[in-house]
Amino acid sequence: MPRIRALIRRRRHTLVLAIVVVLLGVGITATTAAVGAQRQAQVADELCTADSLAAHWHAGSLFLDARSARTGKTILTHRGDEPTQTGSTMKVVTAAAAVSALGPDHRFTTSVVDGGEPGTVVLVGGGDPTLSRLPSGQDSVYPHAPHLDDLAEQVLAARGGQPVTAVQVDTHLFDGPAWHPSWPESARTSGSVSNITALMVDGDRDDPTESYSMRSDGAVARAATAFAALHGPDVRVDTTSVAVASGAKVLGSVRSATVSELVGMLLTDSDDTLAEVLARHVAIAEGAGRSFDAVQAGSTKALVRYGVPTAAVRLVDGSGLSPDNRVPASALTTLMRTVAAKQDGLAPVDAGLAVAGRTGTLGEHGRFTGAAADARGHVRGKTGTLDDMYGLTGVTDEVAGDRVVFTVFAEGTSDPDARQEIDALAAALWRCGGHASAARG
What we know:
By secondary structure, the protein is of the alpha+beta class.
């Protein structure tokens, strides 16, 4: 009996010790969790300096909207719902509208038809600015572009070798003025944008291989003359647009790259002419019209499909070159969230975004250097620049289970150092990532 009682006492002591150990373990775990949560919040505060940067903004007037890519929850906002200038961030709107209205696989066709008189053909503009006058096999600034010499060979074959003596043009696809009255003439001479016509070659550049090459005031004439020269030195050219007769025989045709490919070129290279032509095609596809005046109705109709609020959106062109455009930062951020998720066919838009410090306009002008250098390769987006503003709309890489979509505009400043301040804010948002909501409760 004494041995049995002793055994029972030892087992009781063992059980009590085990219970104490368990309780101590629970206490330690709880304490560790509390310390971990405190440290996480501290780290989040250290990482998320974006609110401090926004509060001490120096570069003109700040317009900012930043949100969780995963939930859509607002992280930071400052005048985010106020419409303001966009610069070339507008090209994200145009690219998304093009995918929506036209479809990613759509191509634009340039054709030649019989002119109805002996030796006469009509070059019909299909709204393809990438059509090239360079020899086939030689690339212009637009990879995979169609070429005039291919079209000329088709025409010669279709005519059974009969010579072409006159070239006419049909440019009725686009309507209204070819140059927007709010654009500065310097945009043409600096090689930023051309007249917007349904027929042109190489974006009407003097040098088809240079992105920023001077444009002319006769885009149609340049294209028609280049095509005529392929048929001989004495071919007559008439640049007064004619209406093609119904049922006219098609002698040849060439097609552009797909809308997906064109959208990539548009965004990465910030091509104003390509943006304007796509905006015009969107307006036509949406039944809004064929001129600059139709861009507002055409593009906003397409954007509604992405859930973007458009009541405060004012679009006068497709490139953002006009200072008269007005878009709230919050509208662009809403669109960017859908782009970042590659929803509703927007993967080509996401793929076309420039990469911080590496490609496109985010790889120029010393972008993402200094204090923002660690964000190189971790932020993608589209820049915007006018005489008195700088902007960036984009998306960060994932941190702590989330990404940040954002739009930031520095308005009322011509100081190029505004780019660095924008980059610093974007870099801070990247560092925040999924910690952003934790840092702000």
